[in-house]
What we know:
Elements: E1 2-7, E2 10-13, E3 18-26, E4 28-39, E5 46-51, E6 57-59, E7 67-72, E8 77-82, E9 91-101, E10 108-111, E11 115-120
Parallel strand pairs: 2-11
Antiparallel strand pairs: 1-3, 3-8, 4-5, 4-9, 5-6, 7-8, 9-10, 9-11
Amino acid sequence: QVQLVESGGGLVQAGGSVRLSCAASGSILSINDMGWYRQAPGKQRELVATIDSGAGTNYADPVKGRFTISRDNAKNTVYLQMNSLKPEDTAVYYCYAGIQKNGLNYYLGYWGQGTQVTVSS
């Protein structure tokens, strides 16, 4: 069994900061890429940021310069530091991880349950 558990969401004022975390647990052999996605009301789910196994990162244009993705491999955890938040950042944020389970020779994609981030103006 593998699961991703997110934390850190909530209500924030515009201009404020929030840090999301997502910890993977279970029978994990290795983790490849990790990332964060979000879905705002009435919009499609979109990629926010990714981080690969070598800590290389990519960001969607709307969050560049404001958000930072990082990972702690010892804790099987990915973080999203969100600064200078705007009302348009309001969304449900989902974490993702490509995980190889013990006893297998391939990766599967896993998703967190989602955490609500609401930015008020």
